[in-house]
Amino acid sequence: MNLQNLRAKSAFFLVLVAIGTKASPQLETIRKPVNAFLFGATLQGAECSPQDLLAALTPRDAEYTDALELTQTLHKHGLAVKCVLHSKRVALFEGQRGAAFYRTNRGNFDALFLPTAETFNVQPNETRKNGWYIYSFGGSPRPTGGPWNCARPTYFTQHANQLFVTQHAQLISGLDRALASTQTK
Fold it and tell me: Which tops the pLDDT comparison, 149 or 22?
C-alpha cells in the first residue's frame, strides 16, 4: 500500500472512529491512540472535531502538498496546527493553486498558494465604510473579483508563493517571523 492510499484510508477510518465516539463511549478510549497513529500520515492534528474532518484537505487536493510543507514549517517554529481544512478563499487571485484554512494553538488563518515558481506581491488597501473594513489589492497577481468586505480588521503577510490572511494581529506577526527565519537559512 502506498502512502497516498494509506493517508486516504486513514482519514476515512478516522472519520468513522471520530463519529463513532458520539454513539459509543467505549470507542472514546481508543480514539486518541488511533488518532495519534493516523495523524502521523495526514495533515490533521488530534484536536480536529468530527465536523472539521468533513472539510479536511486530502492528498487529492491541489494544495495538499503546499499545506503539508507549511504545516511542517509551522511545527518547527512552535506553532501547533490543530486542523488543516478547505478554505473559502480559493481562486481569489489569478493563477492561485488553492487555499487552506488552519486552526492553530494561536488562532486561525487562511493560507493562499500560488504555483512554486510564482510569488505573491500584493498590496492590500484598507478603507472603512458603514462599519465595514473593505480591502482591495494592488500588485500581482491580480485579484479575480471585487473588494473583500470584512466585519473586523484583517491582517496580511506574504512569503514567496504564499499569502496569509487572519483577523489576529499577533498571529500574523508570529507567522511573519517564523517564515522570514526560514528564508534566511
Answer: 149
